Amino acid sequence: MYIHLGQDTVVSTDSIIGIFDIENTSVSRDTKAFFRGCEAAGGVVNVCSQQDPLQVELPKSFIICGERGKTRIYISQISSATLRKRAGRYNRKTQPQGQ
After folding, report:
1. DSSP the chain
2. pLDDT in tens, 20-32
3. Are strands 2-6 and 61-67 parallel, antiparallel or unpaired?
4. Contact, 16 vs 56, CB < 8 A?
5. Residue 6, pLDDT score
6. Of 38, 49, 47, 51, nearest to 11 (Cα)?
7. Which whole-number Å values give the CA distances from 22 to 46, 71, 99, in the listed order?
8. How far, in whole angstroms, is CA 34 from its chain's centroid?
9. β-bridge mates for residue 66, sequence order
10. How many CB atoms sit inside 10 A of residue 96's CB?
11. Strands 44-46 and 70-76
């Protein structure tokens, strides 16, 4: 199945490696280095709404995907909790037994 990340961007739930809250996880030196490496390779996609400069939405999450042998990071204005709920609806392998 597919999950909507914002704007016109959807990804396969099978390609998602992780969904992270940008405020709590982007402060680590290792995370910053990972971001820089992906950005240098052209693997960072910002899917936050930027059509109206007066209503730019701040990013709330980032999603790491493995697509065609490459790592891609999507930056989204949708919260990580909402994205995890959406992904959980389509990927029952991640749900605990009995739910």
Report:
1. -EEEEETTEEEEGGGEEEEEEHHHHTTSHHHHHHHHHHHHTT-EEE-S--SSGGGPPPP-EEEEEEETTEEEEEEESS-HHHHHHHHHHH-GGGSPTT-
2. 999 998 889 999 9
3. unpaired
4. no
5. 87
6. 47
7. 13, 17, 28
8. 14
9. 71
10. 5
11. parallel
* Residue 66 tokens, joined: 């493995």
Length of the chain: 99
Please give the model's pTM, rounded to 2 decimal places. 0.82
Compute the distance between CA of residue 22 and CA of residue 59 in angstroms, rounded to an integer: 7
Q: Give the integer Cα–Cα distance in Å for 16 and 2.
A: 10
Facing residues of 62 across strands? 20, 75
